[in-house]
Specification:
With 173 residues, the chain is α/β, with parallel strands linked by helices. It has six helices and nine strands, in the order αβαβαβαβαβαββββ. It has one domain: Vaccinia Virus protein VP39 (Rossmann fold), CATH 3.40.50.150. Helix content is 34%, strand content 29%. The strands form two sheets. Strands 3-2-1-4-5-9-6 form a seven-stranded mixed sheet, sandwiched between helices. The protein has a two-stranded antiparallel ribbon with strand order 7-8. α1 packs across α2 and α5 packs parallel to α6. The protein is globular, with a radius of gyration of 16 Å.
Length: 173
Amino acid sequence: MIYPTGTPTQPEVIAIALSKLKIKPADVFVDIGCGSGSVSISAARLAKRVYAIDNREEAVRAATENIRECGLINVQVLNGEASKLLADMKIDCAFLGGSKNIEQVLEILVENVPRFVVSAVRMETAFYALEIMRKNNVFKELLHIQLSRGNELSGGTMLKPENPVFLIMGGSC
């Protein structure tokens, strides 16, 4: 896998987020701020159609290559500003992993998407997403995930923590 600048979403966090979205085989899924495409790749095994969106050239190249390597044909990578690209799309569920223009993106998700999750590593992003969802009566659940991995240390095992992640679930369903 090719990883662009930024922290990739951990596989365990992806598994929790996708399980909360309850993706169905006929669903159209959107990965906003797709980065490496790892969320899109996992969602492609569950959804009919996946759109991976990022406005960074580096991320679009990485996601495109990673998706191609996996041989997935139901994923399309889109380069551009999510708030503009989402306007005309019919979406069943979404994962928001980037925080650029979060206000505009969340406004679209709140009005048009039955199930969505925001992944945030910054407390301010989590707070802002939670505030918008509550104001619009679409807040469902907030999770704080702290993941540690075992690493060898002097013949024993120590736990090395990953960055904590907030998952904020929202939607009308």
